[in-house]
What we know:
Layout: H1 14-27, E1 37-39, H2 56-65, H3 69-80, H4 90-99, E2 102-106, E3 127-132, E4 135-140, E5 143-146, E6 160-164, H5 169-173
Parallel strand pairs: 1-5
Antiparallel strand pairs: 2-6, 3-4, 3-6, 4-5
Helix pairs in contact: 2-3
Amino acid sequence: MEKNKILFIGKGKLSDIIKQIQDEIKKQGRKWWFMKVVYDDGGRSKYFKGKNVRDCVTRAISIATGFDYKEVYNTIKDLINITPRNGIPKKAVKDIMEYYGFEWVPTMNIGSGCQVHLKENELPKGTIICSLSGHVVCVIDGVIHDTFDPQRNENRCVYGYWKIDWNNKIFKKNK
């Protein structure tokens, strides 16, 4: 059988058939599907009811660090003197991430084109916050944690990502 084609006729429950297809794809050495996406608002729903907000920085930090959403929200508000619910300027994002002890790892240079996509096999394991066009998202061991799927069929370019320095004083203070 050609590697790009799967001829499969299954019997049984749909979940069993899907599992059989997944197993066949894995046998061929191919990836089953896109990255898994876990719906995660970082705890926002405990405090706010709005769904269409631009709070991805607050959400991603809360998810990545385990800090309470409202605590992160208030800290960001104090740091930049604007509400983090309406988007945050790029320069402020850098300052906020450094405050929380994240280290920037660029994946793209000027004129280099996209080198890393929002794909599990192109990202490191562990907890990272990826910088995308107009969005940041927390990825934990290859699983996206967000309120929607930002992958764009695995074509979404990752400009860089922040990794956590767990030895930063802010984490020791909150333990």
